[in-house]
Amino acid sequence: MIGMNFVSFLILLVISIVVSAVLHYVFKYYARPGFASFMSKIIFGWFGAWLGSPVLGYWFEGLKYEEVYFIPAILGSLALLVILIDLVKSVKGVLPEQSKAGQ
Hints:
Helix content is about 75%, strand content about 5%. It has about 100 residues and is mainly alpha-helical. The longest helix has about 30 residues, at about 70-100. It starts with 5 loop residues before the first helix and ends with a helix.
């Protein structure tokens, strides 16, 4: 997966854009609203899609292009985005409370 071709890169990018758009605009699941937040989801979602097959496995030989297996890529993108959004929401929720406690 490290030396992937351009088509594989584009497939992962499209998966990331679709998963990010569904999370951001359909479910309104974000740490911050706005286009910059959506763009950061696309970047991190691409890494999740890239890691999807090596981490989750190589499922369904019919649904793949070279080494990009579509279902693990979708699940990897979704998983990484949910983890990062929850992490950011948790940190944002803790920091204001800590600053109030210190006063």
